[in-house]
Amino acid sequence: MLFAALIAPALLVMPLWYRYARRHGKRRGLYLASTMFVVACLALVPVIWAPGSWVLAPVALAGVAYAGMQAFPMALLPDVIEADARARGEERGGTLSGVWTALETAGLAFGPALFLAMLALGGFVSSTGDAAPQPDSAITAIAAGFSLVPAALVAVSIVVLHRFRPTTESAAEHRGTDTREQA
């Protein structure tokens, strides 16, 4: 049920993110999607004290945000490659794409490793059969791993994104002008 609450909204809103980018720009879209994701994750914090079906609403918001967080970075990569080529006078698209892939892969490995460390520190009791009773510290670690930690990591990315201005699109966005021709 949680998976459907995350993925279904992501699939439904992808065309809306495209329209948003056409009107406001890709960078601003990524900023909005990331901010929405942080809000959704922080809204999940109370699950520690009050589990229930209410979590479907913030998970759905996270799904909406997730769609933008998947689309916009890939849409911005060509802008970064172009800006780098203009600044350096040489084409390094392959190198930048390789660095992108390496960092993405490292992030995909880091996330589960961090979550496993949190579970271990929380005293999570593993089981191969029936559900094992979990100490309160393990429940707290699970909830923090799905709320506070992702919110903090994405908040850091928002700070980095705020400083990111590789193209004329970004300059136009900074001035608040329409960038439809450039999306």
TrEMBL record:
Gene3D superfamilies: MFS general substrate transporter like domains. The chain crosses the membrane at residues 6-21, 30-49, 55-77, 98-125, 137-161. Pfam families: MFS_2 (PF13347). InterPro entries: MFS_trans_sf. SUPFAM superfamilies: MFS general substrate transporter. Keywords: Membrane, Transmembrane, Transmembrane helix. This is MFS transporter. It comes from Rhodococcus rhodnii LMG 5362.
